[in-house]
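Ticket #4471: structure export looks truncated?
Reporter: QA, pipeline team
Priority: medium

Steps to reproduce: submit the single chain below to the structure queue and open the exported record.
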Amino acid sequence: MPDIIITIGGEAGQGVQTIGEVLSRILIRSGFYVFSIQDYHSRIRGGHNSVQIRFSDQPIQAIGTDLDLLVCLNSETQEIHQPALKSDGIMIGMIKKSPSTSSAISINFNEMAEELGNRIFANIIAVGALIEILGIDDKIAELYLEEIFQKKGNDVVRLNKEALALGQKEIKRQQIPRQFLDKKNGNPNQGNLLLIGGNEALGLGAILAGCTFYSAYPMTPSTGVMNFISSRSKKYGIIVEQAEDEIAAINMAIGASYAGAKAMTATSGGGFCLMAEGLGLAAMTETPIVVLDGMRPGPSTGLPTRTSQGDLEFVLSASHDEFPRFVFAPRDPQDAIDTMIRAFNLSDRFQVPVIILSDQYLADSSWTFSQMKMNEQPQKIQTVIGDHSYQRYALTDSGISPRALPGMSEALVVADSDEHDEIGHLTEDLNQRVQMHQKRMKKIEKMKKETQPPVHIVGQTATIIGWGSTYGVLFEAREKLAKLGIEAGLLHFNDIYPLSTDTLTILKSVPKPIVVEGNFQGQLARLLERETKTSFDLRVNRYDGRPFFVNELVDQIREVLS
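Actual output as written to the record:
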């Protein structure tokens, strides 16, 4: 079946996200693959919020453009989204003026909810209208409502079922011209499909990695990770601390890691600015730490609820002077879980910071998986039991010194932000400075052997290069280009730094590379040029705070190639 795209819009506080969440879960239960994304302003009330749901009987990896169904919880939604509605699309809700090119059904969900005694039921009435238009089995919807409202009592379950039926009844009364689906399109028996968001996956990955300490100051779009972990902290024995600011957050995590915890912190670009000094402390003391940067447009406060890939060069060089670090950028929830586990493992093994780059698009989108795998296995922290002769920063061939934990043996475990000797005591001896700096930097060569090469799909005409959350859009764009006679390949990076030792070999083999990034300067392209001495003149960049859309990207790539 062709994919179907629905947008639900209204102001903050009208329940836009609730409708999107409930409908997505019902579609999943009906056997459909769903991709959804939230679009919201930085407001508690007012402004314009929307949720897009794209679904099919086949896996979907990206946001869509042309709408089949538009749900208007206020009149502003029609003004904003009607231009994207297909000529044969359907629009329901608060409609100012009926368009001549689509079916428009005026429904006041709030007034209908008052029939049940409370406007709170408007959301479920809207869901009922949608499942009737779509042709979804109402038994599946009712069963889901029973599950989510059972704890609130039988009366609440009954009223929500009545609200669902009221929405269905209104669609039948208004005689909508057609349904989108044959009820046979979905397959409720194909297995337990899982809908999971990017922030949920990052939080789940941290839990599976064995994270025992999480400190952060809330900052969009990374706050959802803290919410996910804190809601499960008692079950999994995780200390979660909401710090007074980002400086405190990263230093708390460093202290916890020094004491033996698997520790992480999370923020966005503005908060990461404040964490830069702490990042240097972790590097100098060789204390393992995982830092999540959920990117959004800047500088300064920027656009708090929009997406960006603008922090790459920043995190590559954050804090002063040079030191080794890993930088990863997961492409979807499955990859987010795997990347988070790898981040903890590698941070501990090499005693370096690991920075994970997410963004608002990944954070606030949800994907469907038939199953999720634990492709990486968490490792226990690598420590030794020291004695009186223990040297925390002993010089080794690998640059990695044996790590003892304070208070666990007779060893004195010294950590100092100043340059230090092998024991850890402050020094200004320049020969020791050279030795220690070389010791830290020599880790990079071994780190390169641990980074994974980019995903590579061979193409004949051109090669689309990207990183992080753009994978799904680039993958679908490649498929559409193939239908237009352009056999494009795909090269997509998760492990950004240090680059895999295979990167140069792969880059030399690809035809006509086109680098696609959500920033102005082409930061990945600049990194690849610096590290591989390869030029990347063909680029597509977006920096308006919006994600890439498949159809638009296809047109842009065709234009670049011409």
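Status: closed, not a bug. The export was complete when the record was re-opened. Leaving a note from the reviewer for reference: The chain has 20 helices and 20 strands.
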